[in-house]
Amino acid sequence: MSQQQRALLDRLTAACGGSYPPDVRRRYFISGPQWAAAYPGHALFHAPTRDPITYQDVIREYARIGIPCWATHDTDVIPTETLLTDAQWETVDDIKKTLEQHGLRCSMVTTETFHHPVWAASAAAEAPEVRDYAARRLANTVDIGHRLGASYAVYWPGTLGYLVQGAVEETQTLRWFADGINAACRRDIETAARLGRPTLQHCLEAKPFEPQAEILLPTSDAMLAFIASGLLEHSEMVGLNPEYLHELMWGAAPRAALARALIAGKLWHFDINDGYRLKHDVDIAIGLVNPLDWLNVLVLLRSHGYNGPFNLDYKPPRTTSNYGVFAVSFPTAVDRFITLWEMAGEVLADPIVTEATNALKAGGSPASTHVNDLVAANRELLSLHELIAHRIFQILVGQHRGRVYSL
Ligand code: XLS
Ligand code: MG
Ligand code: MG
To answer: Mind listing the pLDDT tens digit for each residue in 102-141?
Structure first.
């Protein structure tokens, strides 16, 4: 039965067409997180629907699909109790070997500071021993990152916030949080110098709600303000890992949030996924909800020469099987990203978009500088805004290549 169903899945996936061979997929700086592929489908109200899988499974399958990079939380691969002991290095070295065997590289490492009971009051808890432990865990992740050849470390602060008000003093907690990042940067400078490697790029990731009701650093903008606050000893080592859906969740225009990170020179890493405004973190795969917005996001990033990772931080839905995770979910997500990225190139090269944009920028040659003449000179030109949006829609659906839909 399940063999037949797999054959059906494979046949229909192939019938969709539009997929890229693994060697083409590998040309893009795409990373696959350990936790995304290994997510078993659990949630507060949901039991898991998939069986556990290992890093060996994930790395092997990513290699087969053509996902060139792998990323992980420390606890995705090493039990909490084993971290910070010599035994952790056995696993790290085995991961290194597995990555090499399959021709993958580790691009990013991150510390789990939200799931384990020790983080009940966050990594910036009142208790100094918890904060000291957090600093050691963050520094340890830096060392793991160097050992695996990573270039990025990500920090999603998770529980940094509260359910009920009054006990947590925000300014104090933010200072304590900065102490943890400072410890990671200090360790990075030492370790990188010892190994003759460049330091990592440390990237903060915001999420407006979950797993707390109130979050101290809820948006990428809040993270930018935190980086510039003076609390960080090495703010030049710290940038952003925005997540597409995390910005939508608070009602932002993701493209505008990314633009603010770009002008600050802090857009270093990008978690790509999809979902709905003002809803929880559903982590749907890229392009399944907002393909037009995604196309526009990628136009912005391409036009600014963004060359950091595109990290597939989504969760295959609970209805997808273990088999489907690698047969359908990951290859189709990668292919939608590539398609949208290439389409973004088409938008940038499109003669209609280019001519319209240039015409808008040239302005309307007003008869005088009087305000009424400025309005008159631009009146017809400004209809180009809507024309450009129409053209981008056409590119999204392939109509720029002459395809029409009529009876
Ligand atoms: C959770 C975050 C998490 C980070 C890494 O919502 O997206 O997966 O990307 O800890
Ligand atoms: Mg994320
Ligand atoms: Mg998310």
So the answer is: 999 999 999 999 999 999 999 999 999 999 999 999 999 9
C-alpha–C-alpha distance, residues 44 and 46, integer Å: 6
Strand partners, 12: none
Q: How far is CA 336 from CA 9, 36, 37, 158, in A?
A: 18, 17, 17, 29
Atom 2 of ligand 1, nearest CA residue? 156
Q: How many CB atoms within 10 Å of residue 401?
A: 9
DSSP H helical ranges for 108-235 = 128-148, 170-195, 220-227
Cβ atoms of 239 and 227 within 8 Å: the answer is yes
Residue 123: name the closest of 231, 115, 131 by CA: 131
Closest listed ligand to the CA of 245: 3
CA distance 37 to 56: 12
Model confidence, pTM: 0.97
Each residue's pLDDT tens digit, 212-267: 999 999 999 999 999 999 999 999 999 999 999 999 999 999 999 999 999 999 99
Residue 73 CA: nearest ligand 1 atom is 10
Q: For ligand 1, atom 5, which residue shows the shortest CA distance? A: 156
- Ligand 1, atom 10, lies closest to the CA of 156
